[in-house]
């Protein structure tokens, strides 16, 4: 398991984001790392600009995830992984440290599922909506696109390899962001297209509070990526937060212990990004690789 930890800043906000954990995909080998690095930098820059101007942690994580969703290299929004029938069914969630949360599963029409998840949180009485129709999105003021917008040729090819049992790379991937703003507020957001070749209607951990996302002010904000079913069964994000909140565990130790008990012992892989109540940042994964960016200033530390 690899853990990267940055101490709490003397002052100012903190931001961390991930573009998925897994192995080295064939697409990455062919195209090289540069486009992914550029995507990480762009997503970090979008979130950091919000924080640097005094914006909220919630605005920052949504801004970062929106960039990922618009970049076809990452498994979220346009360019997301496809189901067994060749369709895109998208999941996303947001949560604030004050305990508010919104999520969407099997979204088919929202250009940016992260904004739909936020609209669910802020404009409805619900926490999770499944397969919302166009009329619902329009009532919330969320941008709608045709379903074909999400589908790219590289993802079609990846699906074909998986369905023909010729794929050797992991089939999952997720994007997410966590932040602490100048006021000490925490927030987290997660978005994904799920697993390549998954059954239509399958929902992973990304829209599940406590599994793929969790935030509580003065404790931690977390976004997860990896084998979704394992993160749901282990309630991984919440388990990390509970270790900190109730036992006083150090952030890095809480992450390590949760991974050991809920993932490693069962042979599952994945990663998390976390920012503590003091602004400390931890990026961790037990998968071969994880795309991430983290920092307390405009120039992030990148891992690809």
Structure, explained:
The chain has 304 residues and is of the alpha+beta class. It contains 9 helices and 13 strands. Strands 5-4-3-7-6-2-12-13 form an 8-stranded mixed β-sheet. Strand 10 and strand 11 form a beta hairpin.
Quick tags:
304 residues, 33% helix, 9 helices, alpha+beta, five-stranded antiparallel beta sheet, eight-stranded mixed beta sheet
Structure in a nutshell:
The chain is built from nine helices and 13 strands. The protein is an alpha+beta fold and 304 residues long. The strands form two sheets. It has an eight-stranded mixed beta sheet. Strands 1-11-10-9-8 form a five-stranded antiparallel beta sheet.
Q: What structural category characterises the helix and strand content? A: alpha+beta
Anisotropy-based shape: globular
Described by strand count, sense and barrel closure, the largest sheet is: 8 strands, mixed
Mean pLDDT: 94
Strand adjacency order, main sheet? 5-4-3-7-6-2-12-13
How many distinct beta strands? Answer: 13
Q: What is the distance, rounded to the nearest whole angstrom, between the alpha carbons of the first and last residues?
A: 16 Å
Radius of gyration from CA coordinates = 17 Å
Helix content: 25-40%
Contiguous low-pLDDT stretches (5 residues minimum) are none
Strand content range: 25-35%
Tell me the series of helices and strands, N- to C-terminal.
EEHHHEEHEHHEEEEHHHEEEE
Counted by DSSP, the helix tally is 9
